[in-house]
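Q: What would this chain look like folded?
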Amino acid sequence: MSFRVVRVIDGDTFHVAPTWSTQGKTGDRVRIADVNAPELPSVAGLSAMHKLETLIGGRIVDLYTRAVDPYGRLVADVYLNGQNVTHLL
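A: My prediction, written as structure tokens:
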């Protein structure tokens, strides 16, 4: 299913909203499956967040949910234009 990325939180987590939403509201939090980015506010964490923001910020992505983690985030395979974001990172 397609969603718009409305906010990148860190190097492996972001918020999405349905593509039909015109309100720009944040919806579910998504953690990219098989990615473990460095934590903020480390320099490496900031770099990872910037990379993810540049790659998917404001764009439409397809999500294939694997699970929900203990923090309530969807753990999903994320695709941008048919390419797996995990591989692009």
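The domain at 2-88 is CATH 2.40.50.90 (OB fold (Dihydrolipoamide Acetyltransferase, E2P)).
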